[in-house]
Amino acid sequence: MTETPGRSLPTTSGNDLPGSSDATRKGTGGRRLPEPGSRGRTTIADGVVEKIAGLAAKDVLGVHTMGGGLSRTFGAVRDRVPGGGKSSVARGVKAEVGEVQTAIDLEIVIDYGVSISDVARAVRENVVAAVERMTGLEVVEVNIAVSDVKLPDEEEDEPEPRIQ
User: Fold this and answer.
1) ∠ CA(10), CA(15), CA(18), 5° rounding?
2) Domain count, the chain
3) Are 150 and 110 spatial neighbours (Cβ–Cβ below 8 Å)?
4) How is residue 66 annotated by DSSP?
């Protein structure tokens, strides 16, 4: 559209726009700001995803515990020392978290007599659902290592604490 000499084009003020006011336009040069909930950036630590995944995996019937024998032994000792390391919820879980995606590695001990493939499938489904729902991250993979089978007559191999 070209402007004719002596004639001006119709203009609108900020007040003519729905939902705009001078208060929301100040300092924005007349641009509309994004919704308040989308201003800024949210980062999620690896440990947060590890805890969510650990709890989701433990909820699956057939998962006896998380972590392999060695990691459980060292973890039990670390748990008794204040600030000793990874929480028991995240033991046996490793997550790599990016801006929009995450990959998770799990090490589990299963109960004797259950189908390993069925338990692994259920763990993957539960972990993916929980992590995606709670974090909004896309879970690109859940790798599962079954490190042991808990036999019915086996005792827990928790070490004796070195400190009281």
Assistant:
1) 100
2) 1
3) yes
4) E
CATH code of 66's domain: 3.30.70.1350
Judge whether 128 and 106 are in contact, CB under 8 Å. no
Q: What pLDDT, on a 0 to 100 scale, did the predictor assign at position 14?
A: 47
d(CA 12, CA 6): 19
Contacts of 92 (CB under 8 A, 6+ apart): 54, 65, 66, 67, 68, 71, 72, 106, 107, 108
pTM confidence score: 0.68
Q: Is residue 21 part of a domain?
A: no
Q: Nearest CA to 114 among 142, 151, 145, 144?
A: 151
Q: How far apart are CA 20 and CA 31, in angstroms?
A: 10
55-72 residue pLDDT tens? 999 999 999 999 986 544
Q: Is 39 part of a structural domain of the chain?
A: no
